[in-house]
Amino acid sequence: MARIKKYALELCFLLSFVLPFIQHVSIHNGVKQVEVFTGIHFILNYFYVLLPAIACYVLYLKSKKAYLRYVVVVLYFAFIVLGITSGEIVRVAPVDYYRWFAALLPKITLFGLPINIVLGTAVILKLFRLGGQVEKSPIKC
């Protein structure tokens, strides 16, 4: 039971992928079609980003190497950005990111995405709070 309490935040974060994340509305031949994508769709489409993040997180919990937590944060951020933009972030010029996100996010976001981002941020904060227990890296700069 103590192990479940220890990892309750991580379990809630993983369960938040079941919630609806984004809504896509398309109109073809006068017919309006509404699709709701959950976090499971994100996982299936971008597993190559999320699986290394989870693996690095587990390795960090086991080995306590300081550099792994930064890898986890970058990979989670990349996963969320890829999921929100449906992979189109690579086709937009960096100059247009702000305008694109300002126009895109309010129209498509459902309640699952903010919950997932808040829980992901809480996991990241927990990860950095554990930072006092991390050994020094053997790699010297």
Helix content: 55-70%
Using the alpha-carbon principal axes, give the shape. Answer: globular
**SS-based class:** alpha+beta
Q: Could you describe the largest sheet, including whether it forms a barrel?
A: 2 strands, antiparallel
Order of SSEs: HHEEHHHHH
The radius of gyration over CA amounts to: 18 Å
| Tally of helical runs | 7
Note poorly predicted spans: none
Strand runs, count: 2
Instruction: Kindly report the average pLDDT value.
Output: 78
**Strands in their spatial order, largest beta sheet:** 1-2
| Proportion of strand residues | 5-15%
Amino- and carboxy-terminal Cα gap: 42 Å
Structure description:
It is built from 7 helices and 2 strands; from the N terminus they run ααββααααα. The protein has helices at residues 2-6, 8-15, 39-45, 47-63, 66-85, 97-108, 112-129; strands spanning 20-28, 31-38. The longest helix is centred in the middle third of the chain and has 20 residues, at 66-85.
